[in-house]
Each structure stands twice: as C-alpha cells, then as structure tokens.
Design goal:
2 copies of one chain form a homodimer. The first copy, chain A, is α+β, with helices and mostly antiparallel strands. The first copy, chain A, is built from 11 helices and 12 strands. A 7-stranded mixed sheet of chain A has the order 7-9-6-10-8-11-12, with helices on both faces. The longest helix of chain A has 18 residues. The first copy, chain A, is globular, with a radius of gyration of 21 Å. At the A-B interface, helix 1, strand 1, strand 2, helix 2 and strand 3 of A face helix 1, strand 1, strand 2, helix 2 and strand 3 of B. Strand 2 of chain A pairs antiparallel with strand 1 of chain B.
Chain lengths: 337, 337
C-alpha cells in the first residue's frame, strides 16, 4: 500500500484507478510526485518549526453516511486546518487516508475529491500523499496536516495566565444546533426558525469555517489558544487544566448567531447544547488585555468577530455564570466514548 | 477530537482515559507536549527535507482481529518505517490514528501500546501525536511517519536507468506464505515444514523487518528504490513504469529463505504466491554496477543480505524468466480492491 500509484494508462487495480482518476489531479505540488512514489517530500522553510495535526471522521460517528461527499471531504480537512489556525501555523500540506466500503460509487469519490480540491486551492494546503483502502466497515477519512511557524512560535494550550482575557472568534453553538436540525428537520418549526436561520445552522454543521486568517495575529498576541471542537465548556476546561489556571465565563457574553438566538428563545434548555455540543471550529484564546485589543483589531480587519467571554483566574475549575448563578452541565464535552 | 488529552487526574471521557493511561507514557519527546495540545511540533534539522509516508491497517483486511495486539501495532509502524527506509530517510517521528470498536478491552489497548513502545525505542521514532476514536466498524490504525534526508536526497521510485542492476534485500515471499499458514495451520504438514520454518514464516507475516539500517547506503548508491509491500512482481512493475524502463528478472536468483524453499519444493505452484503475495517489506533497488557492489558491502556490514535478481533495460514491461521461459501471473500484485 504505497502512498500513491502509477499512471492511469497502466492501472492494475481498482485502487490505482481511483487514485489515478480522482486524487492524482489534486496532487500538483512537486513534493507529492503525482502520488507516484512511496512517500512525499516537504522542504521546510529555514528557521521554521513544523506543526503537525491529525484528525479524522468516521461515517455514523462524526458525519452521516448520506451527507454530501464534498462537504465530508472539506470538513475533514478543515478540522485539521482549524487546529493549525489555533496554533498560529500556516498550512503547508496534508496526507489523506481514506477507507472506502466496497459499495462506494465512483460518483461519491468524484464529489469527495472535487470538494477536497476546492479547499486545497482555497487554503493553499496541497495534497502531499495518501493511502486508499477498502473496508468492510463504515467509510472513514483520516488526515494529517502540516503547518509552519517561526521556530518556537507555536501557540500552546498550556500557557494561559491569570489575568488573561478569554476570547472566542465568531459564534458558538451553531454546528451543534445544525446537526440536531440535520437529524430532525421538524425542529426548525419547533424552534420557529427562519429559512435563512435553518440554512445557517445546517451549513455550520456541514462546513466549518476555520480561522486560518487569524494565525499570525494569534501568534503575535495570544498567551494560549486551542480550537473549539468538542464544545466550549469541555475545551475551556482542557485549556485551563493544561495551563494550571481557572476561569470565569459570563454566559451572556458568549457570542451567538441570530439563528442560535432564535432557537434559544424557543427553547431555553438549548443553552447547554450550544455551550457543550462542539464542532464549532472557532478559536478559544487567552490574551493579556493589551494583546486582546490588538488581536480583536487584527481580526476585525480580517472580517472575523472576536468577543471577550471571561477571564483567567488562579486556581482550578471553570465557572459559567448566568444571571448571577453558576451553570452546571450534564455532559460537559462531546465524546463518542 | 484534539491530538491528545489532559492529565489522568482529570479524565472526563473514556477517550481521555485511554490516551492518558496507554498512549501518553509513549509520548516523551518534547514536541509531543505529552499529547496535551492540539498539535505537535517538529523542528527539522537545517538543510534537510522531510519525507512523509502514510499507511494503515484494518482488521479483516490487512490483519486478523485475533492477531496479537503488540504485533499489529508494530507492523503498522514498521510498514511506514519501511517506506522511509526505501526513500533513504531517517525516522524522526509519527502520528497515530486509531479507531477502536466499542468492545475493545483495555488489555488489548495496553498490549498494543506496549508493542508500539518497543518499536518507538528500537527505531528511535517518537510518537508525536494522534487521534483516538470509537468506531462501529473494524479496528483500524493509520500512521503518518516522518523522516529526514539531506535536501534533495530522497531516493525516488521514478529514476531507475537502463543498465542498472535490480537488487532486493533479505528474502522474498516469507510473509505471503506466513499468512497462508496463519490462516490454515494444516499447510505446515502439507508443505512438510520444520517447526523452525513454521515459526519463521509466521513471524515474517506478523512482524516485518524494515531495512532502516540501510537508508544511508541507499541514499549514497541507489538510482531508484521502493519497498516491496504489494509483492515483488507488482512493485517492480510500478518502479519500471514510474521510471519509463523495462526489466528482466531471473527467478532462480530471487532470494528465498530455507522455509520458503521447503514449502516450494512441496508445492511448486507457490512460486506465484512468493513473487506476488506482498508484505515483504524488503527493499527493491536499481543501482549502477559499481554502486551495487558498494551497497552490497555496506549492507553486509549491517548484517543484511543484498541479492542481484536482474537488470533494468530500455523499453517497457517486466519479464520474470525461469528455465528460459517467461512466467505469467494470474494476480500480479496484492490489492484488496
């Protein structure tokens, strides 16, 4: 099972045919050798560190088998791009491992590859190599993505300091509501959502918007950061534990989209889902007050909202306060274990 | 799904518990941040290229679910190390993605991690990060491994030249016979194998012996190389197609172990299985005659046999000759498509 296979005129297996037809056209960077070697080559810029992320999706666990194949591809890549963004890294390429059930149609693979190709171009993150297998199980996609930072410049998770402002980009909870809608369309009525709001929430589930445009500003300003993938509550707890600090969050400050506000006013209990549901792919950062202002200004220039939601304190634990009361959560973070 | 999770005193999910208990102790290199960040950091040595390989295994496709977990782990890593070896690269680390069925026992994960730890130490290839998921499907392991070569020094597959000697390391066909034995123990009687031979063949299936010790000698001497993972016949065809050359192989020269010779003398038809069965993880190289001698001498110093099995010619196609006749193969290469 090499990283890639030969030219399409000499296909000797279904694997080579799929790779040749759908994935080779995406592997245009010289170091990918058109997927025709055992490995790829990446020449890191002098003075840089490589930042390495790996994340994958499995049908029935992270997405629905009937989701659009182009959005499955793009989401799998964007989950990794979001990790790179939160670390302040500039994407330089990725490896793709895909396991396909025997019944997978060529048209599915074609649409998957087309979606991937769009994001390869949009994020300037070339396909370097991969591995394609048949599986008796569900379709799965695993990506290892690589970025660069100036040596020593990766934004850590473990370096938040008491006194830091806690900020998030964009809005929280949309994808978590979007997947509920995607599973049960009748919720749109119950939540009294406009058509635009339904579309917004569903789109945020299908297609994350990683904040790679903020990588440099994060590197210059953040004390610590991570992306919000498993829910704000659980991920902030991780950041605080890793940093040996505590945090207080003002729930009323957590930025919500108009669509999430509509849903929340129809069902106040959705606040837990919004804060813990995950798949946000926004950035959670801890910054000194001066750096927070600089970061927010840089983000505004890039068209991304940044909102202060609380502050880092000494001690341990994270308090989410609303109307003077501390919220508790039945299921603080997304986990499929 | 971050690259890793927090400290074991604060486990909030089964995923974190597994990672904390079994995988964090393996992640001792500083850039892995004890699996406690979203990403890992790798500082490439100045003047080096990174060589990137990805390869995975799925239960029921590439191994049997009841195979020993330590050997599954080691084989998954060694398949990637073999790619790095064939490219002349020195391993510098890897990312691990593992999808576990719900019924996976902790004892299985413990044995898997113990096997991985042995090879991390033996090959000096640190665990940098990973991704752990539950799957409704079969257990699967995907690894992305990284090596370094001096800039421009990766040994390519596409650069074999007419006049080159074709050589292989070690012996061919052992793992392909080993998996047959593993599936049907009665073959040992039919093939009249000694106990030592049974053990040898089975071990070669369970635990490849990648030739990383030869990486530097390959870099200095080989015109082109790849590892033999999908069978000598199919892989040599790939190397020749990629290089735009042809090859002639003397089947009598293909190095066989004593065990494979025993099996072959009991059943002459096994020659096809030996030449096409795959899982050899030996190195197939094309070298000028002068470089072949130097490579063979360096390999002998490292305790690895290198055997000339044929030569590169101009044109296209690969001929396997035995007793003056050209062999043809029903199934030239391993493929599960």
């Amino acid at each position: 099972m090499p990283s890639g296979e030969d030219d399409s005129a000499n296909e000797t297996s279904g694997e080579e045919r799929l790779i040749g037809r759908y994935f080779r056209p995406l592997a245009t960077t010289p170091g990918a050798f058109a997927l025709g070697d055992d490995a790829a080559v990446l020449t890191p810029p002098p003075g840089c560190d490589l930042v390495l992320s790996t994340d994958g999706v499995i049908a029935g666990v992270h997405f629905l088998a009937e989701d659009p194949p182009d959005s499955i591809a793009r989401k799998a890549l964007r989950m990794n791009l979001s990790d790179l963004a939160a670390k302040g890294a500039t994407p330089v390429g990725f490896l793709l491992s895909i396991a396909l059930p025997a019944e997978t149609q060529d048209s599915w693979v074609a649409a998957f590859a087309a979606g991937l190709g769009q994001d390869i171009a949009y994020y300037a993150c070339p396909l370097l190599g991969g591995d394609t297998d048949r599986t008796p199980g569900p379709l799965s996609v695993s990506i290892a993505a690589f970025g660069t930072v100036p040596h020593g410049g990766m934004v850590r998770r473990a370096t938040a300091k008491p006194g830091n402002i806690i900020a998030v980009t964009g809005t929280i909870g949309d994808a978590a509501l979007g997947v509920l809608l995607h599973l049960d369309a009748s919720l749109a009525e119950r939540w009294q959502l406009s058509v635009a709001s339904r579309t917004h929430l569903r789109d945020r589930y299908l297609l994350p918007q990683p904040r790679n445009v903020l990588a440099e500003a994060l590197r210059h300003n953040a004390s610590a950061a991570m992306d919000v993938s498993d829910g704000l509550v659980g991920d902030l707890a991780k950041l605080c534990r890793a940093s040996g600090v505590a945090a207080e969050i003002d729930v009323a400050s957590v930025p919500l989209s108009d669509a999430a506000r509509e849903a929340l006013s129809a069902d106040a209990k959705l606040i837990e889902r919004i804060l813990t549901g995950g798949d946000d792919y926004e950035i959670l950062a801890a910054l000194s007050p001066a750096n927070f202002s600089a970061f927010r200004a840089a983000a505004a220039q890039a068209g991304v909202a940044v909102t202060q939601i609380g502050q880092v304190t000494s001690g341990q634990g994270v308090l989410f306060r609303r109307d003077g009361k501390v919220l508790s959560f039945a299921r603080p973070a997304y986990t499929h274990f």
